[in-house]
Amino acid sequence: MTKFVASFVLTLSIFVVGAVQAAAQGFIRDAEIEQSLREWTDPILEVAGLQSTDVGLYIIGDLSLNAFVANGQRIHLHAGLLIAADTPAQVKGVIAHETCHIACGHTVTRARSARIASRPALLSIGLGIIAIAAGAPEAGAALIGSSQQFAALNFFTHTRTEEATADTKAVEYLATLEQSPIGIVEFFEKFRYQEVLSEARRFPYFRAHPLSSQRIRTTRALALESGYSDVPEDSRVLLQFDMMQAKLIGFLESPAHVFRAYPPDDVSAPARYARSISAMQNADLTLALSEIDSLLEEQPENPYFYELKGQILFESGRAAESVEPLAKSIELLPNQSLILISYARSLIARGEDGDVEAGEEALRDALIEEPDNAFAWAQLAIALEKQGLRPQAQLATAESAYYIGDYPRAYSFASRAVRDLVQGSHDARRAADVRNATDPQLPENARYWRRRG
User: How do the domains of the chain map onto residue ranges?
Assistant: First the structure.
């Protein structure tokens, strides 16, 4: 019985937030892509009545097509959706739709809908068990097996209205910004065939956002009535979209796929970008540098091209040479936390006079912007250890472990830091906070400790 109930709960949780599968995937962090998506998303959030600083935007390194809201005000986009879209308007349409799920309170109502949907499913499980006990195992198994389908049908009955509302609001938000809302219609039509596929064969997005011909017709009518359906996309946004897709394809797809998508005779900026990244991924330093240098010749003020060149050099074992392009990137785009972290890593690896101290300064600047960046804390621990500041390095290690959920490691290093730091100092108080927050005696920490055995 426990086995069947657990299966039902897992299935239902996918319907509710769409996040279970994504939890096993890593997040993609990229300064350029994040900046582009923020420029598109923040105005939508604002017209929806949300504070843009309160809403997280996350890219998941998964090539399947999905987008969802989970864990409060957090919009998650799969890389596969960004690659599959034909236009930035399609991506904006999806973002506007997901924005309504936050602004319209659907993250709360869906949890309630899930509880309601579970009732007939649990009843079906109970009847199935009774049937098995009464000597009808085949009938009982059929009842139990159908429980998830009952739950899904009930859940979608409760959410169909919410999906229609989100479509309507997506059109409204974009029209308010005097941008074309036709993208969401085009996105639905591009994947209209998903409507006739079985549940198991649909993309994750269309399991949680089921399509119907009526839904597409209604949304198209609203988009046309808005008066903005023919508004052309800004050329800058089109370039951002092309470069975003090139970057994602270069990093995530195979060299053969990149070659097909961006053949050598394609000398556009996105094509060279994708080929440079793919070559870096496959240790072809000559091609990687050749392509990025050609881009820098044409756009010597592009900070992201310098950032990529620094990454290519660092990952090919030429850390000392990677410092200069990363320094140039920061000069062109000051206070960008992810670039500051890369720059600090290169300085620490180069290790010339003053490098470690400069690296520490860059990391502390980055942590002002992103205090929960575990990788930055780990690099800071290295910089502090190299300067002989072991207690401070132990605290930085504890911070890093805390932010990735490794509570045993966080507790261990925070306890050492508390012991060795000057009592009453700011660092000592922070170490005590981390130690107390990860204390194995606290019931709420049990799952974090179990995760580490």
Answer: 2-225, 371-453
pLDDT score for 8:
29
CB 411 within 8 A of CB 417: no
What long-range pairs does 306-309 form, CB within 8 A, spacing at least 24?
306/332, 307/31, 307/32, 307/339, 307/342, 308/273, 308/276, 308/277, 308/280
State pLDDT tens for residues 235-250. Answer: 999 999 999 999 999 9
**CATH number for the segment(s) 371-453:** 1.25.40
